[in-house]
């Protein structure tokens, strides 16, 4: 702590310091940032024209607010970023339990100390990081946890009446005085506990067990809630909802570009290990499209949502699949392949909730389907003129006829997850016309992207039912559709 700051109440008075409420402090600092063109919520992507302006309006209005949205929509991250709108340090009465303002102490300890010491009252400077607290709402949270309770042991030891403030054990909300307090997943809080928040929201004070103790608080309260919890597991009681000044709806990324930026920001892909891993840009697109497809799939519970954590985990897993391949083959580098997307199924299965139709298919099959649907969507957007998403129909791909003919002539293509890079490229290069088509149509600039681009074209043709894929373990075989059907119809030798 800098010794240049006032260390006593008298020095603080002489410095000309003026106390403002925490909401006025946040409003003032936000206004300065907006006027200076500074970023207010670093790392929050895709909300510039939707969520963030509404939050800024709430802060400028000195409102408490609720962020309502499905899981994985950066609600907690936004709430935690609010601490950046607080001053670097504020003065508090040294040792006070409620971060007491030296000019207007509210706790009995601080009031007695100021009355006794006057201008010699010692001052501490509280950093903004210690002025933010949060609580995850769970059914076992009690009023004592949030607001406080009488400590009978302290009362008996000090021979104090239960109505004396000094026997109170303060909860997390009073200890957040002159700061920000956040409650995550508010609907999970039992209604009788939510009732305890009403007085704080309206009167800005707390009461303990009905005793005539009223302690005014200076606090900004923000909440987060999931609409699924709102309807299935709990509710926000109407009187409390009425006292929350603003309800702001969050959402998932609206564009693939925003989704790619979010995942790139959060995913651990720079391993600094024995092998250098390269991820083609179109692979990153396919990862995000898998999440987009999941969010609109008839197999997935849309009310539950598909968290942004799914593509993050998925990208990390496909990188690990390529890294593992490099380590097994002793290669100094590896490039992520399309087949690695199917190795990331475990990163999908734990992140989606299925409806009955999906449960009948099985979680692993649904995950496989979603990856395939993402590949098909990306392929058709590139190669179907005037493509309209959502229309299920059979398309013709005249540009790819040479490739289809190659399979119809009885040729097959084998790709294994752990195949060395040279074998992988050699197998793909054997397909007539595939390399030149990939160079031209995929606009390959980085040589490392060529083989995965060729594989993407093959998988795209399979997803459009022009060729067949047979999966055995970690190896796939692409073959002509008719030949595969005829082979299945052949009777085994007697």
DSSP summary: helix tally: 23
Number of domains: 2
Radius of gyration: 30 Å
Strand arrangement in the largest pleated sheet: 4-7-10-1-11
The overall average pLDDT, rounded, is 91
CATH class of the largest domain: Alpha Beta
From the spread of the alpha carbons, the general shape counts as elongated
CATH topology title of the largest domain: Rossmann fold
CATH superfamily annotation of the largest domain: P-loop containing nucleotide triphosphate hydrolases
Most strands sheet: 5 strands, parallel
Low-confidence sequence ranges: none
* Helical proportion, percent range: 40-55%
Write a compact overview of the structure shown:
The protein has 494 residues and is an alpha/beta fold. The chain is 44% helix and 14% strand.
Question: In words, what does this structure look like?
Answer:
With 494 residues, the chain is α/β, with parallel strands linked by helices. The chain folds into two domains: 9-249, Rossmann fold (3-Layer(aba) Sandwich); 256-487, Orthogonal Bundle (Helicase, Ruva Protein, domain 3), CATH 1.10.8. The chain is built from 23 helices and 16 strands. The strands form six sheets. Strands 4-7-10-1-11 form a five-stranded parallel β-sheet. A three-stranded antiparallel β-sheet has the order 14-16-15. The mean pLDDT is 91.
């Amino acid at each position: 702590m800098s010794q240049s700051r006032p260390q006593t109440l008298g020095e603080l008075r002489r410095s000309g310091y003026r106390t403002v409420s925490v909401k006025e402090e946040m409003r003032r600092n936000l206004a300065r940032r907006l006027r200076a063109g500074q970023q207010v919520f670093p790392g929050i992507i895709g909300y510039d024209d939707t969520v963030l302006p509404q939050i800024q309006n709430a802060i400028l209005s000195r409102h408490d607010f609720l962020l309502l949205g499905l899981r994985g929509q950066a609600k907690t991250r936004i709430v935690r970023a609010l601490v950046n709108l607080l001053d670097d340090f504020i003065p508090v009465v040294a040792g006070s339990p409620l971060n007491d303002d030296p000019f207007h102490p509210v706790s009995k300890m601080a009031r007695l100390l100021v009355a006794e010491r006057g201008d010699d009252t010692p001052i501490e400077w509280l950093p903004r990081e210690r002025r933010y607290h949060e609580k995850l709402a769970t059914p076992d949270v009690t009023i004592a946890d949030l607001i406080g309770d009488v400590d009978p042991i302290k009362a008996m030891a000090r021979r104090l009446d239960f109505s004396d403030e000094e026997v109170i054990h303060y909860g997390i909300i009073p200890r957040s005085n002159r700061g920000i307090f956040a409650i995550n997943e508010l609907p999970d809080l039992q209604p009788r506990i939510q009732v305890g928040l009403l007085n704080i929201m309206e009167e800005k004070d707390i009461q303990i067990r009905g005793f005539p103790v009223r302690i005014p608080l200076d606090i900004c309260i923000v909440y987060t809630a999931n609409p699924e919890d709102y309807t299935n597991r709990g509710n926000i009681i109407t009187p409390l909802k009425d006292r929350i000044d603003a309800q702001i709806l969050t959402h998932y990324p609206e564009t693939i570009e925003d989704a790619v930026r979010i995942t790139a920001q959060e995913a651990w892909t720079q391993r600094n290990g024995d092998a250098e891993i390269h991820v083609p840009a179109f692979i990153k697109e396919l990862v995000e499209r898998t999440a987009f497809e999941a969010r609109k799939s008839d197999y997935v519970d849309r009310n539950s949502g598909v968290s942004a954590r799914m593509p993050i985990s998925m990208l990390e897993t496909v990188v690990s699949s390529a890294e593992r391949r490099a380590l097994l083959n002793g290669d100094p580098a590896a490039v992520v392949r399309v087949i690695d997307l199917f190795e990331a199924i475990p990163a999908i299965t734990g992140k989606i909730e299925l409806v009955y139709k999906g449960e009948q298919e099985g979680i692993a099959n649904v995950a496989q389907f979603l990856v395939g649907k993402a590949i098909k969507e990306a392929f058709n957007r590139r190669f179907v003129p005037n493509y309209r998403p959502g229309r299920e129909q059979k398309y013709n791909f005249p540009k790819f006829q040479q490739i289809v003919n190659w399979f119809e002539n009885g040729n097959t293509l084998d790709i294994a997850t752990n195949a060395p890079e040279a074998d992988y490229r050699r197998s793909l290069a054997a397909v007539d016309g595939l390399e030149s088509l990939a160079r031209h149509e995929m606009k390959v600039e980085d040589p490392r992207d060529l083989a995965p681009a060729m594989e993407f074209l093959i998988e795209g043709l399979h997803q459009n039912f022009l060729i067949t894929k047979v999966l055995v373990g970690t190896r796939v075989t692409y073959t002509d559709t008719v030949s595969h059907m005829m082979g299945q119809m052949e009777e085994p030798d007697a």
